[in-house]
Write a structure and sequence with these properties.
With 661 residues, this protein is mainly α. It contains 28 helices and 2 strands. It holds the Pfam family FecCD.
Amino acid sequence: MRPQTPSSGTNALVIGGLVLALALVLTGFNLKTAFPRLEWHDLAQRAREGDLLAAIAFYSALPRIAVAMLCGAGLALCGTMYQQVLGNPLAEPSTLGVSSGAYLAVSTLSWLLPGLGMPERILIAMAGAGLAMALVLILAWGHGLSVLALSLSGLTLNLVFGSLASIIITFHRDGMVSLSFWGSGALRQNDWRAAETLVFTLFPAIAALVPVTRSLSLFSVGDETMSGLGVSVRTFRLMTLALATWIAAVIVACVGIVSFVGLTAPWLAHLFGARRMTERLLVSAMVGTALLLATDQLLVAFGPMAQSIPAGSLTALVGAPVLLWILRKPRAAQPAAAASASIFSVPRPSIIPVVLPLAMFGMAAAMMIGRDAHGWHILDYDTLAKVLPWRWPRVLGSAAAGAALGIAGSGLQRLTGNPMASPEVLGVSSGAVLGALLAMFVASPDLPVTQDIGAVVGSAVVVALLALLARQGRFAAGHVLMVGIGLGTVLSAISSAFALLPDPRFQILQLWIVGSTDGISPFSAVLAAIVATAGFAAACLLRRWQAMLQLGAPFAAAAGVTVGRAQIGMLMLVSVLCAIATLIVGPLSFIGLMAPHLAEILGGRRVVPHLVLTTALGALVMVLADWLGRNLLFPYEVPAGLLATFVGGPYYFWLLHKRAV
């Protein structure tokens, strides 16, 4: 531990003050540019009298600045408290699922009870945030509230809650466009209500924090020492968590989800030299204020197009390097082979002859059985011939995507020696989405294959980055998961920001991100089927690599496998499969997690039988999800990717709860 020097705390305060001053200078420059001839004295009075320029400045520009400063400071304090109490450098409202829980609660009640006022919204957000925090603690409690368990629980809960909120907005998009924009952390204001709400709710929380700052610092010395000093550790921890959750919920109720400010600000405060608890809180608050204010003011400075991007999404770009830096080394390494043992130790006979015909029957039934305004029915030959041109691409594309995700998930689990690895969990699917989005800017609309190439490149970059960071932790199972989920969270936030741009190329983006299979073309379906078939053949040819890598890199090297070449080959295969599947069903489905486990339960032990079962089960589950999404809530349609997430998300939580992390 670094010795405390007398000047380090002062230096941190000075640096934090300078950073805040720079943000304020940028703010002043923007105000001067936007209102060059405005007289600032008696601004409020002239705004009330109908002066248009004064009204814009007083009711829009100034409240926006105030809200950015208050939210930045509040999120920084949240992150500092979470990290100190939980001993987790990755803890902040978005990584713990607290922000997404509050957002889901507000979205749901806004749908059911339109016209909610700010007091009701705050109470609802508090309930959702509290529920999310409770779920994270319950899931991680069996693992001693370890850094890994907390991070995995929170980040995965964030994905599931975000999917649920996406369904609500997808079903009622016409009436909830503003809610979608708000949920991404928009700081635009039309009055002072949000700023006043933040002041009257955050200041009491900060006042309650001041007298316990010294006790808060005791978490650094351990629970036993705190108990010896007469502190009720459990009570104080829960009270501090409740206080931080309250602040996060209020911020979500006012402006939506602002990602990674609570992670970045405490890290920068520590980098600047803040060590004592009081210094960390003060410097974090200053840096958080400066970070969010500067981010928002940069968007203002870049003009109307940039202003359409919510500041809360853009902070993910700032938080990404910090997250990767924190994750560059594992906190506790474990051999990959230690995590590679099957969770199902009872051998079972293979049922491949049953599963393969079942998958084919499922595809046929999905095309023939359906629901309309008159109820359920089985199509006759003439009707089937009429609807087949629309149905077969959807069924074939869903089956191919599910099969590709199953193969990719099986490969990742063997490569990392981690049964909880999958393309969705490790951020590979999110990388494919972002790559395809970026390809939209440079590609001609007449060349749809360019989007496919962009998805492959995006997933390959993520897989390469994942491998680079995981190699530093010797492919420790838990470290790989944390790196992957962190990458996926950052990339998803960036993709969500693209979805809100006023560009016609992104009109179908939201449906694609949530996994809608409605627009699958015959070309895309056939391409996905070809890639999935080739991927299956390649995975079978690489069966020796997979069998050896599952036992760990040292064992594989001793058995004569060129480990580096084998890892690169498997990563390339996973990248291609994941990219093509993501273009069909979006970045979230958890098929890549569930299919390999189902295959193992049904008797798949050796590589090739396991791949056969994984491919068939992945295709069957995805076709079933698409068929249920099309018929379950007719005439509404649930995107297949989201429907699969409902099953895969709880299964992941169960797996996390059962396994020693």
